[in-house]
Specification:
21-stranded parallel beta sheet
Length: 296
């Protein structure tokens, strides 16, 4: 535990540790009162080789998490402005809202495990997120995607799940399951791409927002493709695959286009039964190495 009003804090442990409470201390005839958690107006950097947890709150302008260890900070009363990670699995909660960005020299999130981001406030994704396993967002807030360039979220052997609405001011790409494991992309409350391109590379898609057209690219394009080459996209009435019910929730303007498949990949599109392209996507193209129809 530590509190400072003047600068940054950096702590390294070859093992794991817990952010908690330290009792009264006396060092060189100086007395220090008990302190719970960590508070600094500057950046806070943790480097760990084991599991890091908390009982005390963390409050910092920037939170940088490094090392091979995992980090689980589950207190909703954390107060983090910007999060950056190059570490193992990470689970962060701050119900006041926080941003994924740059802290010191660490940019965005690069995790060798799962990434879980939770907030009842606004979660800003202003740099890229890469995880070896799942990427999960929850907490009841909203998600904004910003920064510059193109925003990419990649779950190499995992699923990507967003429980709350997404508003993107940049072209946005979601890559799930490119490593050959998992690959479900779940969008529960829609995406407003604000006329930017939207790419959803996965193995299965579940767009469960109740409102038709909840995934809205405007004049931008929507590309739905498999995350790896020589893979099959199943167009289905409903169920596992890309369903008519999923596409009914996609809207593009007259100048936007829905692409099913990716011309740069050797995907096969398999039409299983009767399949309808929603009227909300007036321009639609199937781009694939081959097209098959199972029945109907």
């Amino acid at each position: 535990a530590a509190t400072t009003s003047i600068g940054t804090i950096s702590y390294q442990d070859t093992n794991g540790f817990s952010v908690g409470t330290v009792g009264n201390q006396s060092v060189s005839n100086a007395n220090f009162a008990a302190t719970t958690g960590v508070t600094t107006p500057g950046n806070l950097t943790f480097t760990a080789g084991g599991a890091v947890t908390q009982t005390g709150n963390i409050a910092s302008t920037g939170l940088e998490l490094l090392g091979t260890g995992s980090y689980t900070f589950a207190n909703g009363t954390n107060a983090i402005s910007t999060l950056a990670v190059n570490a193992g699995a990470v689970s962060i909660r701050d119900d006041g809202g926080f941003n994924v960005g740059t802290v010191n020299s660490t940019v965005g999130i690069n995790s060798t495990g799962t990434v879980t981001l939770t907030s009842a406030g606004t979660l800003g994704i202003n740099d890229n997120v890469t995880a070896a396993s799942h990427i999960t967002q929850s907490g009841g807030g909203i998600v904004t995607v910003g920064g510059s360039g193109t925003r990419v979220l990649s779950a190499t052997n995992g699923n990507i799940s967003f429980a709350n609405p997404i508003a993107s001011s940049l072209p946005l790409t979601l890559n799930a399951g490119a490593g050959g494991t998992n690959g479900l992309i779940t969008i529960s409350n829609g995406i407003n791409a604000n006329n930017n391109a939207l790419i959803l590379n996965g193995t299965d898609w579940d767009f469960t927002a109740s409102a038709a057209g909840a995934i809205n690219a405007g004049t931008g394009t929507v590309t739905i493709s498999r995350s790896n080459n020589n893979a099959v996209i199943n167009l289905v009435t409903s169920g596992s695959g890309l369903g008519t019910d999923d596409l009914a929730r996609i809207t593009t303007a007259n100048t936007g286009t829905l692409f099913i498949g990716d011309a740069t990949k050797s995907n096969t599109v398999n039409v299983a039964g009767n399949f309808d392209i929603a009227a909300s996507t007036p321009n639609a193209e199937i781009r694939a190495a081959s097209l098959t129809q199972a029945s109907g």
